[in-house]
Fold this sequence. Notes:
Layout: E1 5-17, E2 21-24, H1 25-28, H2 36-43, E3 47-50, H3 57-72, E4 81-85, H4 96-104, E5 110-114, H5 120-133, E6 139-147, H6 157-160, E7 165-178, E8 186-194, E9 202-204, E10 217-219, H7 221-242, E11 252-255, H8 260-270, H9 281-284, H10 291-301, E12 310-317, E13 321-328
Parallel strand pairs: 4-5, 4-6, 11-12
Antiparallel strand pairs: 1-7, 2-3, 6-7, 8-13, 9-10, 12-13
Helix pairs in contact: 3-4, 7-8
The protein binds oxa(dethia)-CoA.
Amino acid sequence: MTEQTVRRAVICGSGSALPKRVVSNAELATTVDTTDEWIVERSGIRQRYIAGEGETTSTLAIEAATKACEAAGFDPASIDLIVLATATPDHTFPATATQVQHALGAHGGIAFDVAAVCSGFLYALGVADSMLKTGMARRALVIGAETFSRILDWEDRTTCVLFGDGAGAIVLEAQEFAADDATAPGVIATRLHADGRYKDMLLVDGGPSTTGTVGKLRMKGREVFRHAVVNLATVLQEVLTDAELTAADIDWVVPHQANARILDATARKLGLDPAKVVVTVDRHANTSAASVPLAFDVAIRDGRIKAGDLVMFEAMGGGFTWGATLARI
Ligand code: UT7
């Protein structure tokens, strides 16, 4: 009798990249009407990294992707799928993913960008997982990379203090496991959602087909906050139900890093131990699609997340879009 097997997308390595320049809250307070106390109390952010000359979404993505391949021990040329999540591409087209592919010397495979703003990494991971499971590719890079500093209104204190630049990447490989192996690594369950009724709560007020300009980020922060807590708690529960697990089974939550108070409120709603939540918003601020893989790479490299751990990724952002993925490392 032949053994039943399942194909899973296994996370084999991670990497990240940050611009050279760190900007503290105190430095921002010299140019906009704000204080370090207000920013820390309302968001948990203490500093952010801001891209300088020569640093772009693609340069950060290439650095993160190279480190992820190194961590996995993969020849970058063996990558046959690159899905890059960004709302701040180098160019309107071609996709930034193709520039990463070129830099890695991985010509001829699949490479494209995904636009789901702060949930972009979750969407990109969902797409890559599906493509690996169906055999369209064997080794995938999933990248979140952003230079949000270039779409901020630096005179709007309600938004410019909240965001930063950076990139994170993971490499996944399709591997076969016995169908009844409950401890096999890989992506276990994913749920993604969008609701376009909420466009005006968080958007960039420009674009190629409307104004012909890049535009600036606009956000109704209080409303986004309220929806984020409800939507994230709901989608996390959906994924746990799909996986037939409970919050107590999760070893680590790697959330989108928008606001420390959202992380606390979501953990409380689910009855999750806050010590299991990876928090990097204090040092990275909100890096949109980059925030989840950046936080994951930090927790992998400092030894918190280990092989065998059950990790929940989650995010919510403009659209609205939101989602969660459960994976065993
Ligand atoms: O990544 C996508 C998802 N994004 C998010 O999840 C962001 C969600 N929202 C948030 O994180 C929070 O709503 C914020 C951090 C954006 C704001 O915190 P808040 O507690 O909701 O503050 P608020 O917007 O209600 O503003 C309170 C006050 C206002 O003054 P008044 O109207 O009460 O007099 C603001 O004008 O704080 C004022 N304010 C500031 N004061 C000092 C707003 N920004 C600043 C600032 N410095 N930078």
